[in-house]
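Pilot study result, target chain (71 residues):
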Amino acid sequence: MELIAADDSLGAVGRNVAIERVRTPYVSFCDDDTRWQAGALTRAVASSRKIPGSLPSPDAASSPATGVKIH
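Predicted structure:
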């Protein structure tokens, strides 16, 4: 897990900053009004893999965010 801290509230832009830092093929966000049920993410990935081109390649590169402190 990696904590990304910003000097100011980024709102929805914070998700974009986080996505730029991801080094895994998938990412999910859990908001304060969300509760993942057991197995939900596994089922979501399995379902998405059935649709060609719906998920990025595990080798997809992403560029690091700028202007944030990484702890």
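One observation from the pilot: The helical segments are 13-21, 40-49. A full batch analysis is planned for the follow-on phase.
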